[in-house]
Here is the input.
Amino acid sequence: MKYALIQMPNSAILIVDNHDDIGKSRVCRLIDEGGKPVGTIESDLRAGTLQAGFEHRRSVELDEQYYRIRLAREALDGDITWEQVHPPQILKGGLESATP
Here is the structure.
C-alpha cells in the first residue's frame, strides 16, 4: 500500500491512505488546512500501525532524554554521586571504577 505523508502546521506528519476517493479528498482537505505533502511511503502495514510504530520510537527517544535531564538536574542539585552517573565498568577481567 502506498501512503501520502502530509506535514501539518503543528509539525505533525500524518500518514494518509489515499488509494480511494475518500483518502484523496482527505489529502486535499489537509492541504487546504495548511498541510504540505512531504512524500510517500510504501508498506504492507496499515496506516495506524505505521503511525503507532513511529510514535513508539519517538516515545523511547523522549524517555532517554528525560532520563538525561533528570540526571543533570540531580547533579546540579548535588543529589547524585559520580558513581551514579559513571557506574563501575568491567575492564580487563576485573571491576574498575570510572572515577577520574
